[in-house]
Amino acid sequence: MEIIIGYIIGFIVLVLFFVSIFKSVSSRIKSEKRDMNQQITDLKKRLDNIEEKSQ
């Protein structure tokens, strides 16, 4: 009986571990995407400024 309880607890811990890894990776991807969008926006503004100066 103790072996079954141990397996159940181990399974629960393993599931929680994978859930935490998934959440961590997901939040990192969102953060990187937000940073990349900001960089693209900044580059577009710089390009617009350069085009205005050249005209």
From TrEMBL:
It comes from Salirhabdus euzebyi. Keywords: Coiled coil, Membrane, Transmembrane, Transmembrane helix. It comes from the Bacteria. This is Putative membrane protein. Residues 26-53 form a coiled coil. The chain crosses the membrane at residues 6-26.
